[in-house]
Amino acid sequence: MGDRIPWDQTTGVVVVGFGAAGAVAAITAHDHRADVLILEKQPFENHLSTSSMSGGAFICPTDVTAAIQYMEHLCRVNEELCWTDKDILRVWAEYTSQNRRWVEGLGGKVELRARGGEHDLPGSDCIEVYNFRGRGQGLMKFLKGQVEMRGIHIMYETEADALLTNVQGEITGVRAKRGGGPIHIKASQAVIMAPGGFEFNEEMKLNYLKVYPAYFAGSPANTGDGIQMVQEVGASLWHMNCCSASWVLKFPDFPIALGPDFGGIRGFKKWVNSAAKGVPCGYIIVDKYGKRFTNENFKRHTLYYELSLYDSQKLEYPRVPSYWIFDRKRIEAGPLPLMFYGPMLYRLYRWSKDNQEEIEKGWIVREDNIENLAYRLEMDPFVLNQTIQNYNQYCQQKEDTEFYRPPQHLVPIQESPFFAVKIWPGSANTQGGPRRNHKAQVLKGNGEPIPRLYAAGEFGSIYGMLYPGTGGNLAECIAFGRIAGENAARQPRR
Ligand SMILES: Cc1cc2nc3c(=O)[nH]c(=O)nc-3n(C[C@H](O)[C@H](O)[C@H](O)COP(=O)(O)OP(=O)(O)OC[C@H]3O[C@@H](n4cnc5c(N)ncnc54)[C@H](O)[C@@H]3O)c2cc1C
Prior knowledge:
The chain has about 500 residues and is of the alpha+beta class. It contains 15 helices and 21 strands. It has 2 domains: about 300 residues, FAD/NAD(P)-binding domain; about 180 residues, Alpha-Beta Complex (Flavocytochrome C3, Chain A, domain 1). Helix content is about 30%, strand content about 20%. Strands 1, 2, 6, 7, 8, 9, 20 and 21 form an 8-stranded mixed beta sheet that branches. About 55% of the residues are buried. About 0% of the residues have low confidence. Bound molecules: flavin-adenine dinucleotide. Flavin-adenine dinucleotide binds next to helix 1, helix 2, strand 3, strand 7 and strand 18.
């Protein structure tokens, strides 16, 4: 119990995790006159958060009422049930609509990226998406500068592993591993948990997500540590089976997933900075059996759910893995992963310019004809051949009568050699974690707040099954980082 702890250090507000949410919470709590200390488990020299590996886009709605409407439609399940309480959606709308002003007010540079939410629902027109200059890397550099400018101390290589409480059940501080031993840090006002998701915890993904395996492109430090910490003090969890995800490349000898660059025109938009920019490359995605199952003009943050289909007769996931099938044109257009995304942004893996090294490693399967490709993938050659013939026929007639892929994206697969790469469910992040209220307080099973405990960011995100679209998580990091920071700083000192 916190009352009898020999404290190693005392501060007002302890923030666990130095990603975007932790940084914004720390800045805000400081600006509301709290003494703040950030605990970060990674070392200073190579600290890499998912926030810094991200695209750096964030949502900023132009109209609070319309934003509430959009979120209510997104979260509604039926008359009684909603993924997220209405008062939380209201503060989300109020705070996210100030995101741009907040960032620019501190000197951050942003530019408009897109208008409109990802889903065509009432209110979606009010969504504007801004890119932070320099993307996630630029955003975290900027936030770090703000933290340092305020003299907020970041204790690196300090892994929080327990929340400490007093006899009244109030959170009094944090126990952390540092330099081989435990340290105890007293939070005289509050603790804000912002340690990210559980993208790199295999057991949690197996138990909580809709499909296994699922792979993610962010920081391997996100191992869901905080979830057990908050459960031990009675927190209730929510959104544990929800993710913002589609499909990714993942290879056994590299731990982080990579985003696929389908080349030229992909899905609903041209990829900016695509290696194959401007080269329209023919490709399809097929299941284990060589059949297409979706319009490749997919939704970036929702397609994951389509991969989670389970076949109860065969006792398997027929779409895990799926295969990206393409021809010579795409190989010649440049590296297969998106170079501006996740680990490639930091060159954590050096992909060969002509893809040859990865062909030699067996990551990319190459064959001179479709039959041999099918044998290598353990598919029926007749089925794969038929799928490609049908697809090429749709390209010729400029109409995909099976999945309705837009005509401008119909490019045939016909130039030998032919290639295949495994595609897995996953991509950006998990959303699950402790349930929070509109003040960012962590809630118990009975709905009461755990005194002096707050959460922000993707650690118990407010998003349920449907994600509002590009920029949703960072929007929430900024909004709930501020909400948590303000409310934590209001707590009286003990
Ligand atoms: C490739 C990629 C691109 C993306 N692009 C976008 C985008 O453009 N827009 C958008 O909105 N979202 C995007 N996302 C999602 C978004 O980046 C994340 O949801 C968001 O950055 C999460 O921020 P966070 O502050 O909650 O956590 P994180 O940024 O993950 O930070 C958590 C921090 O906590 C630390 N930590 C973990 N456990 C402990 C512990 N026990 N003790 C101390 N420290 C701990 C970690 O080391 C880490 O530094 C993207 C994700 C990926 C992977």
